[in-house]
Write a structure and sequence with these properties.
about 150 residues, Umud Fragment, subunit A
Length: about 150
Amino acid sequence: MIGIPKPKFFYINTTTSLPLGIYYLSKEKVSLSKTVVFSKPSFLNIVKRDWLIKKDFFIKKIIAEPNDNVCIKNGVLFINGKYVSKIKEYDRNGKKLPKNIQEDFCRNLSKDEFWTSADHENSYDSRYYGPIMAVNLKTVRPLILF
């Protein structure tokens, strides 16, 4: 289960998924290319990884929105038929990456679903946990980047 993080006005991004810095809540509508914040998916609470234990929220970009076709085939992500990125099996420490999505996922996102990602292939994003419901997303904008 994924939810909205505890109400805050500011979020500090300390990972390289997006630029490091302080982000603030925005009143912008969740849509393609927007940066969003959401609670860490609950299935990850049992995963013992430094990069997951210390986080209770994720900050990512929206790369697919309702009605977009999202497919994972042979370890590769395609959106609307276009190559997006590879899907890694192991993290940088050689540990198998936790997944909560089927290997051959392929469908149009529903009217309330969005697909998240980051600026590079080493990000832990929707390729591993699947689409996020709109009700669980809040837009954020950078205030100060480090």
